[in-house]
Design brief:
Layout: E1 40-44, E2 47-51, E3 56-57, E4 59-63, E5 71-76, E6 81-84, E7 87-90, E8 97-104, E9 110-118, E10 125-129, E11 132-134, E12 140-142, E13 144-148, E14 156-161, E15 166-168, E16 173-176, E17 184-191, E18 198-204, E19 209-214, E20 224-231, E21 236-244, E22 250-254, E23 267-275, E24 284-293, E25 296-301, E26 306-308, E27 311-316, E28 326-332, E29 339-347, E30 353-357, E31 363-371, E32 382-391, E33 394-399, E34 404-405, E35 410-415, E36 424-432, E37 438-441, E38 446-448, E39 453-457, E40 463-472, E41 476-487, E42 490-494, E43 500-506, E44 508-513, E45 523-529, E46 536-543, E47 549-553, E48 559-568, E49 573-584, E50 588-591, E51 596-604
Parallel strand pairs: 2-9, 11-18, 19-25, 27-33, 35-42, 44-50
Antiparallel strand pairs: 1-4, 3-7, 5-8, 6-7, 8-9, 10-13, 12-16, 14-17, 15-16, 17-18, 19-22, 20-21, 20-23, 23-24, 24-26, 27-30, 28-29, 28-31, 31-32, 32-34, 35-39, 36-37, 36-38, 36-40, 40-41, 41-43, 44-47, 45-46, 45-48, 48-49, 49-51
Length: 626
């Protein structure tokens, strides 16, 4: 998920609740009076009937507020059923009473629920979600099945027809393998032990969407362009890609940025064509409002596009505590967590600062101001909202007094981080445990300096999530998951809970030697791009302490890349050097003399500030890509 803003695709979730408590929770902490120690555990629902062969999700809340929410689950008697992270499945005979117990980790403090095992419910129906989908060749899609009526066993078997067109896991994850463009696949979910109870979903393998723009003015020839599809009603980004303008036309083949292989769906879109770089201040955005995009080739003449002038928002009266730091601004749909656009890593020189938005329509927005301190930890972090502001074309001004503090809705503390992952950085993503939809990630790349780290979320509700931790240490990087965790306003997760390793390994380090003395004391960045296309592959940062510096890369695989080496000078300028088609591998070393100063070698490092930094200590690299 490259260069992705931290507000996107937010889904509000709530913890399922059942009957009220009757005598629970219980506590056996001996009244030690320690306010940091668990004193009670509440299990929800507290009294319920669960059919034999069915299942029910229980949640546990540990009190008082602010203590670790980590619990261990048990069933009494032990042979009466199974429980996995609160998901209970009874195996005892109907009429049996079973106790479901949650105990605060490392204590004897517990709470219970009473379950009566009911008569088994015979499956009568299956609902498959989604009922239809587009999945490109090599792409994947998660399907779920709900067996009815309520209380029926939820176990199903999955199958794909025609044979060889794709494969599907026992959990419903489809991968399209042998299908061709235009083929239709049928996904079937069948209730276990009830072969006549089933339902299907239809998958179409679409031809990739291709957009050719003709008649492009000569000023944009021989340079990289980008095309993006936006929902015409919601101001939300759908898919996009880049392409090289050769002559007077350019062709773009579109796929979803989040999945890589999932093609964008045909439909009505706002189409936006971009040239230039927002960080260099020369970005130009052109738009067609609500045009039908079909599978296959779509040809659009340049004359159909209209220019979208940038919007500027100046914040005045910024408090002294934020002068000399870095900030971001986000535009959101009023009263929601729906992201529209974002400007990041802007230097705040004094009491006012201007943020420039490209490709954004005038309208009513919640304006979010974030003082991030990304590379200084979270102690000085602040988020503020100016609600329902009418943002017009051209210049806009908002006084600091219009902003109110936004408190975090969720704080997650990860404890017991191994030594090899320290002295690095990390972030957490929350994934909906039921649908596998991406929900949110914490604001800020958090520095990992010791055995614990704190991650804060501002626009997502407590609920049950897969907690996806990306972490880059001094020696290793990892992407690991703590599945189906009940996340409350303050949650502590031990490292041991991240028990599913998705991928991980040694950080691919690249060293640059022979760096001139004039760059010592500056921040620097290496950026990898794919030759020919110019598409971003990876980047890494380093502080230049001497003649050599090592950059840690975690996303790109070894291979051939165009390399850009940038230095962020104390006077606010970014100096760029380039090296074409270099073999990059773990432990690679590149001599500075092999780089060539870029023709656009000097550019304003501070986004749109137009000001000189007062001192070297204020220089910070741009936000790291994910």
């Amino acid at each position: 998920m490259k260069n992705k803003p931290k507000l996107l695709g937010i889904v509000a979730l709530a913890v399922a609740i059942g009957f009220s408590m009757t005598g629970c929770p219980t506590s056996t902490n001996g009244g030690n009076g320690d306010p940091s120690a668990p004193a009670s555990v509440t299990v929800t629902p507290s009294v319920i009937t669960v059919a034999q062969g069915g299942q029910r999700q229980f949640t546990a809340t540990v009190g008082p507020e602010g203590v670790s929410q980590s619990v261990t689950w048990a069933v009494e008697p032990a042979n009466a059923g199974t429980i996995d992270n609160g998901l209970f499945a009874p195996t005892a005979t109907p009429g049996t009473q079973v106790i479901v117990r949650a105990t605060a980790t490392g204590t004897t403090v517990s709470g219970t629920a009473i379950v009566t095992v009911g008569q088994p419910v015979t499956p009568a129906s299956v609902t498959v979600t989604p009922a239809s989908a587009y999945v490109g060749q090599g792409g994947q899609r998660q399907f779920t099945a709900t067996v009815g009526p309520e209380g029926a066993p939820q176990a199903v078997t999955w199958s794909v027809t025609p044979t060889g067109a794709g494969s599907i896991t026992t959990g419903g994850l489809l991968t399209v393998t042998g299908a061709s463009v235009g083929d239709t696949l049928t996904i079937t979910a069948t209730a276990v032990n009830h072969p006549t109870v089933s339902n299907t979903a239809t998958v179409t393998v679409p031809e990739p969407i291709s957009i050719t723009v003709t008649g492009i003015p000569s000023q944009y020839n021989n340079r990289n362009g980008q095309i993006r599809l936006w929902c015409p009603d919601a101001e939300s980004f759908v898919a996009g890609t880049s392409g090289w303008v050769s002559g007077s036309e350019v062709n773009f083949t579109l796929s979803d940025w989040n999945t890589g292989s999932q093609f964008a769906t045909p439909g009505d879109y706002d189409v936006r064509l971009e040239f230039g770089d927002r960080y260099d201040g020369d970005l130009r955005v052109y738009r067609i409002a609500e045009i039908n995009i079909t599978s296959g080739t779509n040809t659009i003449p340049w004359s159909a596009f209209t220019f979208m002038p940038p919007l500027t928002i100046t914040v005045t009266g910024i408090p002294n505590q934020y002068h000399g730091s870095w900030a971001e601004m986000v535009l959101m749909i009023p009263g929601t967590a729906s992201y529209v656009s974002w400007v990041g890593d802007t230097y705040i020189p004094g009491s006012s600062m201007t943020f420039t938005f490209y490709g954004v329509s005038p309208g009513l927005y919640d304006v979010i101001f974030v003082d991030a301190h990304f590379f200084e930890g979270m102690d000085n972090f602040g988020m503020y909202r100016a609600p329902s502001r009418n943002i017009t074309a051209g210049a806009n001004s908002i006084p600091w007094s219009a902003f109110a503090t936004v408190p975090p809705s969720i704080t997650i503390t990860v404890t017991g981080i191994p030594t090899e992952y320290r002295n690095g950085s990390g972030d957490i993503e929350l994934i909906c445990a039921e649908t596998e939809d991406w929900v949110d990630w914490g604001w800020s790349v958090t520095e990992i300096t010791g055995a614990s780290a704190i991650f804060r979320f501002f626009f997502v509700d407590p609920g049950t999530y897969d907690v996806d931790l990306w972490i880059v240490g001094s020696e290793r990087w990892g992407h690991i998951i703590a599945p189906s965790r009940s996340i409350t306003a303050n949650t502590t997760i031990p490292w041991s809970a991240f028990n599913v390793v998705v991928n991980g390994g040694n950080v691919m380090s690249v060293t640059v030697t022979g760096i001139p003395e004039r760059y010592h004391g500056d921040w620097s960045r290496i950026e990898l791009r794919y030759p020919g296309t110019g598409n971003w592959a990876d980047d890494g940062y380093a502080f230049i302490e001497g003649a050599s510096a090592t950059f840690r890369l975690r996303d790109a695989a070894p291979g051939i890349y165009d390399v850009t080496l940038s230095f962020f000078e104390f006077d606010g300028l970014e100096v760029r050097y380039t090296l074409s088609s270099r073999n990059i591998y773990a432990g690679a070393s590149i001599a500075f003399g092999q780089f060539i100063l870029s023709p656009q070698g000097f550019s304003e490092h501070i986004e749109r500030s137009g000001r000189i930094l007062p001192g070297r200590s204020n220089v910070r690299p741009l936000r790291a890509h994910r």
